[in-house]
Design a protein that fits this description.
By secondary structure, this protein is α/β, with parallel strands linked by helices. It is built from 12 helices and 9 strands. The protein is elongated and about 70 Å long. 41% of the residues are buried.
């Protein structure tokens, strides 16, 4: 098979900034990403952003089946050549964020996600799986390095935020490898990293997923304000009610939301839910 660069040139492909197209071509790196995802011959893989098909092909070499979404239809001739002979690949030319995830999961059953995500959709795509997916076993995604640090951050660090707490409730998150910007075409202005998120059933149990989301949003509403003041603003509690709930959650007065680990935020959300402050 010809090199990806040669295929792109022969097809007259033009990179489109609006789709955040930065492709990988190094075969050793692509194979390593597939290994990071823990893919075997029994695995169904969902890829978001097939691009020129280099990662798709690496996934096909290890997986039972690969379903890859791609928004840019001008890549059709590129993918046709890049994936020649990959009978276990299916390309869906649609915007993944507009697809019916319930219907897709009903068809895929259990699956893993592996993708070189366009930077502009990284967080929305990840959060869709974190909040909506039922059959996903893990996410292994290439993201901007600083975003990777945010996804896996510890409580109390500058990188820790609402998205960190959301991920931590349902998945174990780690940075699998760092990838310098020179590995991409065209070369982006930042370095990247591969993040692996493995879903764990009841990792941090909560009485209401909705209540947890709202509590986390409130905790990080204003990082300069105390958690107590954020609670007053979000849930219209009296000062006395806020103090009572924080005390019951064993949270000291004067703390800020970004200092609380996900487990403590979960306890707080349960109390807010039980007392009817979150419906």
């Amino acid at each position: 098979m010809r090199e990806i660069n040669d295929i792109l040139k022969s097809c007259g492909f033009q990179f489109k900034k609006q789709f955040g197209q930065n492709f990988l071509t190094d075969k050793n790196l692509l194979s390593a990403i597939a290994a990071d995802a823990g893919i075997t011959k029994d695995t169904t893989v969902l890829e978001i952003g097939a691009g020129a098909g280099a990662l798709t092909r690496a996934l096909c070499e290890k997986a039972k089946r690969v379903v890859a979404f791609e928004i840019d239809r001008s890549l059709q001739p590129v993918l046709a050549e890049a994936l020649a002979g990959c009978d276990n690949a299916e390309i869906v030319f649609r915007d993944f964020m507009k697809c019916d995830l319930v219907a897709l999961e009903a068809e895929l059953k259990e699956y893993v996600v592996a993708a070189n995500l366009p930077y502009y959709v990284t967080t929305p795509v990840v959060m869709r799986f974190i909040e909506e997916a039922k059959g996903c076993k893990s996410l292994t995604v290439m993201v901007q390095e600083e975003v990777a640090e945010r996804f896996c951050a510890a409580a109390g660090t500058p990188e820790y935020g609402a998205v960190t707490a959301a991920i931590a409730r349902v998945a174990e998150c780690r940075v699998a490898r760092r990838v310098p910007r020179a590995m991409f075409i065209p070369r982006p202005n930042v370095d990247s990293a591969v993040v692996n998120m493995s879903f764990v059933k009841d990792r941090i149990p909560v009485k209401s997923a909705k209540a947890y989301r709202e509590t986390v949003r409130c905790a990080f509403l204003s990082r300069r304000k105390t958690l107590e003041n954020n609670l007053l603003a979000c849930f219209r509690l009296s000062r006395e009610q806020a103090k009572e709930i924080l005390s019951a959650a064993e949270i000291a007065e004067g703390v800020r939301g970004e200092t609380l680990p996900p487990e403590r935020l979960a306890r707080l959300s349960d109390l807010l839910f039980e007392k009817g402050h979150i419906k």
